[in-house]
Amino acid sequence: MHVVRAAVLPAVGAPLELAEIDLPEPGPGQVRVRLAAAGVCHSDLSLSDGTMRLPVPAVLGHEGAGFVVSVGEGVTHLAPGDEVVLNWAPSCGNCHACSLGEVWLCANALSGANDVYARRASDGSDLYPGLNVAAFAEETVVPVGCVLPVPDGVPLIDAALLGCAVLTGYGAVHHSARVREGETVAVFGVGGVGLAAIQAARIAGASKIVAVDVSPAKESLARDAGATDYVVASDTTAREIRALTGRQGVDVAVECVGRAVTIRTAWESTRRGGRTTVVGIGGKDQQVTFNALEIFHWGRTLAGCVFGNSDPARDLPMLAEHVRAGRLDLGMLVTERIDLEGIPGAFENMVAGKGGRALVVF
Predict the structure, then answer these.
(1) Could you tell me which of 69, 89, 76, 67 has the C-alpha nearest to residue 133?
(2) pLDDT of 10
(3) What pLDDT sits at residue 309?
(4) Which residues does the chain have with pLDDT short of 70?
(5) C-alpha span between 130 and 54 (Å, rounded)
(6) What local confidence, expressed as pLDDT, does residue 324 receive?
(7) Which of 16, 153, 217, 331 is the most buried (most CB within 10 A)?
């Protein structure tokens, strides 16, 4: 056993606790990783407040990068010192979704979250890895499928953002919505994922990119990412977006919030025949309603999107090429650099709609 510090969620709805935990040595097929950085994602907040259900007590954090400390039996392609990105949703390769090549829908991707992976040093109580990888800790032990090499030319700390925000935002634009050159795009929610989606729309050659957020303070951040227009969310948002597009509406809307009213507004902001991709994770109480006539009349498409419909093994090299070419700026997603003690404050900022991505730097 090896003792490290971690941010522990003791129960759903409870505040995070900074604690020492006992990590075992990596077993067969496992890898021990020393974290360099971990992003604070809205999904971590959704786990802490019960919107998403996984076993607790747990160490949260699923967007991270670091270097290999040691490997277990059977792991031959990694060695101590190798820089890696954590992959919180490893595909099993055997389920129906994987057989179709839709690895982002793998039925077994989160099975590891149900296994005890560490214990509290104070009392020996069991701990679970929030979304498989438990990145809110100085070190973690994960299955080998949960690590991928950091691509050449990507700084290790910035690489943490590839693990969720960038794969999700970029994938939503390129894999789910399939934005084409010259199309118009609206992105709802200017957090880490939204900023990645705005950059992805710019890379795709969108002719107009409208960023939407409740906070006027995020306009400069959105424009730096590539937004051509900015709308402060209100009950007239869809009308304002249509006015910016010759009263037609955008070709594509990407919703990164996960609220019923935002999903409905995103759908209404698209043109007749437009496409809406929902990235945000909402609760069961968020009911979105449509009538049968408007579905027929508008001919719009509304699609869910899991992890940006991404395959990390396929997409990380492509994202790295955009980074090396200067088209994708990972660092601009980060508006706050914190330590483990700063995670609760980062949660509060997310609830208040402040900032982009908070990054825990170890």
Answers:
(1) 89
(2) 95
(3) 97
(4) 1
(5) 7
(6) 96
(7) 16
With contact defined as beta carbons under 8 Å apart, do 128 and 55 qualify?
A: yes
Which residue shows structure tokens 């902001």? 269
- Residue 168 has what pLDDT? 97
What single letter denotes the amino acid at residue 303? A
CA–CA separation, 251 vs 275, rounded Å? 6
Give me 327's structure tokens. 């088209």
Contact between 198 and 327 under an 8 Å Cβ cutoff? The reply is no
Start-to-end CA distance of the chain, whole Å, equals 21
Closest CA to 29 of 69, 64, 75: 75
Q: How far apart are CA 195 and CA 179, in angstroms?
A: 16
Name beta bridge partners: 70. Answer: 32
Q: Which H, E and C letters describe the chain, residue by residue?
A: CEEEEEEEECCCCCCCEEEEEEECCCCCCEEEEEEEEEEECHHHHHHHCCCCCCCCCEECCCEEEEEEEEECCCCCCCCCCCEEEECCCCCCCCCHHHHCCCHHHCCCCCHHHHCCCEEECCCCCEEEECCCCCCCECEEEEEHHHEEECCCCCCHHHHHHHHCHHHHHHHHHHHHCCCCCCCEEEEECCCHHHHHHHHHHHHHCCCEEEEEECCHHHHHHHHHHCCCEEEECCCCHHHHHHHHCCCCCEEEEEECCCCHHHHHHHHHCEEEEEEEEECCCCCCCCCCCCCHHHHHHHCCEEEECCHHHCCHHHHHHHHHHHHHCCCCCCHHHEEEEECHHHHHHHHHHHHHCCCCEEEEEC
Nearest by Cα to 340 from 19, 11, 100: 19
Q: What is the pTM of this model?
A: 0.95
Q: Which residue has the tokens 């030319």?
A: 153
Q: What is the pLDDT of residue 302?
A: 97
